[in-house]
Structures are given as C-alpha cells and as structure tokens.
Design brief:
Shape: globular
Structural class: alpha+beta
Number of helices: 8
Strand order of the largest sheet: 7-6-1-3-2-8
CATH class: Alpha Beta
Number of strands: 8
CATH superfamily: Peptide methionine sulphoxide reductase MsrA
CATH topology: Peptide Methionine Sulfoxide Reductase, Chain A
Largest sheet: 6 strands, mixed
CATH architecture: 2-Layer Sandwich
Distance between the termini: 38 Å
Helix content: 25-40%
C-alpha cells in the first residue's frame, strides 16, 4: 500500500517517523555520505547542458541539486519507461520501467558533468544499493544515469570503473548507465518537495542529511538558497 500524497510507502513512512523521533538532528539521519575522488574524465564546458539521474526518491535528489551552484533547474520526474505510464500511481507499481529521476539543466562554466556525477555518487544517494534507497524498495528507486549522448556515457562509465577500482565503497556500484529515451516531469506536488515540507518526517530523516553533507563535503558548490522549479517557471 502506498500513500499517494506523500509519495512514499506506508511502511516507509512509519519506519521513518519512528527513526525521526529518535534523532533530533538531521545530521544523524540515515544517509551517510562517502568522500570520493573527482572523475579523471569530464566533458568540455559548452552551452547549457542536461544531466538525468536516478537515485531513489526524487525529493532528496532534486533537493541536493537545487542547492548546487551552477544548476539552472532541477526537475523531479520519470525516465526509463513510456510516456503513457509516466504517472506517479502507475510508476509506483514497479512495472513500468521508469525510475524516479531528476533532470538537471546546468551551466558547464560553473559546474561540470563530472562534478554533478561526483555529488550524485557521494551525497545524493548510495550507488551500491540495488533497486532501493533507504526505506523505498523497487526498480522505480534504482540507481541510474540516463545519458543524452555518447560523450556522457563515456564519462559515466569511466567514472564508475574508476570508483570501483579505487574501492571507495564497501560494495560494488550497481548504477546502470543507459541512453535517455525520454524524461517526463512528475506531478506538481512532487516539485520543490524538500523545500516546501522541511519538517515532514521522511524529509527530516532521509533527505535533510543529504543537504548537510553537500554543504560539508562540497562547500564550494553549495548554495544556501535553492533554485526552485516554481521560481524558474515564474521567470519564464
């Protein structure tokens, strides 16, 4: 059973609520960051670029990149399946091929594709968890990179190989790398969720620690004021 409004399973919400009550500080949450080396390979800085990644619940992943300098917009949505099934209730069945994903538009003169992947692997999620993140279980919560061209694929594949060879994680990275066939924005109530609901137990326990880890580990890339979808729409 799932709570459609909250976007998480009932079991996940109950477990998270109990844990959130036990931990007064977001820094004591469930997400542990891993300090990792920067990628040896990267893309050239030309024009506005797009990265699409999936790392469990899109609330936290979106929140991380909304607090990242150089990101022009970060939108929660679905990738990996057909447009006809890109709806929350359907994706939640785990049968659509979709993963909860985030589309990141960014200025490569301020942040590179490689740096986005470094933040993704380090603080945005645990890339060694197969088809799950924290309390959320299913292929829709898998770790994935959806590439827009061959150059992105080469950088992503090389970085995963680099991190596995360096054994920076206790287990192998299970992140899949595949061609982006389409990205479909999620429903409006999923956008800017971390900022709009900072006291929601799931956010407090699972996602606010990611923001704290970003601030600590990637201080030079951190911005205090998030770049929100709602603000981006208002300026267009």
């Amino acid at each position: 059973m799932r709570l459609h409004h909250s976007g998480r399973s009932v079991l996940g919400i109950v477990s998270t609520l109990a844990l959130a009550i036990s931990f007064a500080s977001p820094s004591l949450g469930s997400e542990n960051a891993t300090v990792i080396p920067a990628p040896k390979m990267d893309l050239p800085a030309t024009g506005t670029q797009t990265a699409v990644i999936a790392g469990g619940c899109f609330w936290g992943v979106q929140g991380v990149f909304q607090h990242t300098a150089g990101v022009l917009n970060a939108v929660s949505g679905y990738a990996g399946g057909d447009k006809s099934t890109a709806m929350y209730e359907v994706v939640g069945t785990g049968t659509t091929g979709h993963a909860e994903s985030v589309e990141i538009k960014y200025d490569p003169s301020k942040i590179s594709y490689g740096k986005i992947l470094q933040i993704f692997f380090s603080v945005a999620h645990d890339p060694t968890q197969l088809n799950r993140q924290g309390p959320d279980v299913g292929t829709q919560y898998r770790s994935a990179i959806f590439t827009t061209d061959d150059a992105q694929k080469k950088v992503a594949d090389a970085y995963i190989a680099q991190l596995n060879a360096a054994k920076v994680f206790k287990r192998p990275i299970v992140t899949t790398v595949g061609t982006l066939k389409g990205f479909y924005p999620a429903e409006n109530y999923h956008q800017d969720y971390l900022t709009l609901h900072p006291r929601q137990p799931y956010i407090v326990y699972n996602d606010l620690p990611k923001i704290e880890n970003l601030k600590k580990i990637f201080a030079e890339n951190y911005i205090e004021k998030p770049t929100l979808v709602s603000a981006t729409k208002a300026t267009n």
